[in-house]
Amino acid sequence: MKRIVITLSALLAMAVPAMAGHVSTIGTGTCGSCHRTNLITQHGGFDAPVCQTCHDSTATAVKDTIASGVAGQPYTCSNCHGAESHAQKHPDYVANFSTYNGVEPKYGTTAWTAPTSYTPVTPAAKPYQLCVKCHSSNGLGATTNGMSAIVGPSGLNLTDQAWEFSPNNRSAHPVIVTLNNQVGSPAPRALKVAEMKAPWTNVGNQVMTCADCHDFVETGPQGSGITWSLKGTNKAWPYTVAGVSSGTFQSMRSNSTSFCWNCHNFSGAGEVHTTGDHDSVRCVDCHIRVPHGGKVSRLIGTATSGLPARYSGDGKGGAMPRVTAFKKAASGSYSESSCSTNCGEHGPISGGETW
Questions:
Q1: Are 274 and 246 in contact (CB under 8 A)?
Q2: Could you tell me if 112 and 160 are in contact, meaning their C-beta atoms sit under 8 angstroms apart?
Q3: Which stretch, 81-90, 147-156, 304-313, has highest mean pLDDT?
Q4: DSSP string spanning 216-267?
Q5: Distance, CA of 126 to CA of 105 (rounded, Å)
Q6: Model confidence over 129-167: pLDDT tens digits?
């Protein structure tokens, strides 16, 4: 009997740390209240920080994936997962996306809002369905104004990409639909042919994939050795040096290594980008830092209270845009009357878009 008591006491002692994070679920009835069919899509579904700390295993694959955390802390990716990159965990994401399960976001009709729901797609039929399974409110949990409370490897908050690429937004890169099918965008939806480089000159009729902008190779903590895993000849954004999270912002005078010019044609980008008056204007004085999609046309940011901190110049609510309102030109040609600014060069406009 004594031997049995000791054994039970030892077992209970070992169980206490493991139970520390499960307080909110104790008494709900079954393990299934937390552990569902596909846990990867459920990280944001818990009503308290219940999963990030307690798991351990003698299996190497599990130990490599689950890192020790601290019970009771708000969860972040790093609380559970080590520094391994997407490519190290899933080296065939790009080539074999259709061997993984994904989700299809369902949208209402309102611009700049989260999807109303997600439909499982098993297996994924399109690359973005795999990416937004985790990089959205489906995987991150509730998001506010496009932002998650979870901090990513760059030290900045992750964003809700299903929200950003919504067809209802006034601007978005064509990941889910073509620009001509971007229903929330006022005309003209597509850019001019002269503003794009091959193979993107069939303007308005093409879709792109996450892999057109982001690299998936096994170097560096995010997969490419470059912040945000940017790919292509030019990898610098929004700073003049690639792979940094602070520094000198690109401007019209200093943008030769800009990531944007991998696909966009600077020489054909219109008078706004080439006028001498804008030589010293920073890209983030006009455009949002995270260029997936936005509430205002042409990925413009405005110095108004609705602009989320993550979309400001420094990603933290600093280096705010100088534009205060923007009006998309139906002709595609812009003048000073197309925007109001706080730099003293443009006067107020009526009917402009703002965040």
A1: no
A2: no
A3: 304-313
A4: --SBSTTSBSSGGGB-SS--B-SBSSTT-SSSPBPBSSS-TTBGGGGTB-GG
A5: 12
A6: 989 988 999 888 889 999 998 887 788 999 999 999 999
Task: Identify whether the C-beta of residue 218 lies closer than 8 Å to the C-beta of residue 85.
Answer: yes
Which of the pair, 151 or 21, is modelled with greater confidence? 151
Q: Is the dihedral of CA 301, 302, 308, 311 positive or negative?
A: positive
Each residue of 101-135: pLDDT tens digit? Answer: 899 999 999 999 999 999 999 899 999 998 998 89
Taken as a whole, the chain contains a residue count of: 355
Contact of 290 with 278, CB cutoff 8 Å: no
Helix (H) or strand (E) holding 103: strand 102-106
CA distance between the termini of the chain: 71
Please identify which residue in the block is written with the tokens 């003048």: 335
Phi/psi of residue 319, nearest 5 degrees: 50, 50
**How far are the Cα atoms of 242, 259, 266, 292 from residue 234, in angstroms, in the given order?**
8, 5, 13, 17
Per residue in 52-80, pLDDT (tens digit) is: 334 444 444 444 444 444 444 444 455 55
Using DSSP bridges, classify how beta strands 117-121 and 102-106 pair: parallel, antiparallel or unpaired: antiparallel
Exposure b/e, 295-324, CB count within 10 A at least 16 = b: bbbbbbbbbeeebbbbbbbbbeeeebbbbb
Q: Output the DSSP codes for 138-157.
A: HHH---BTTEEEEE-TTSSE
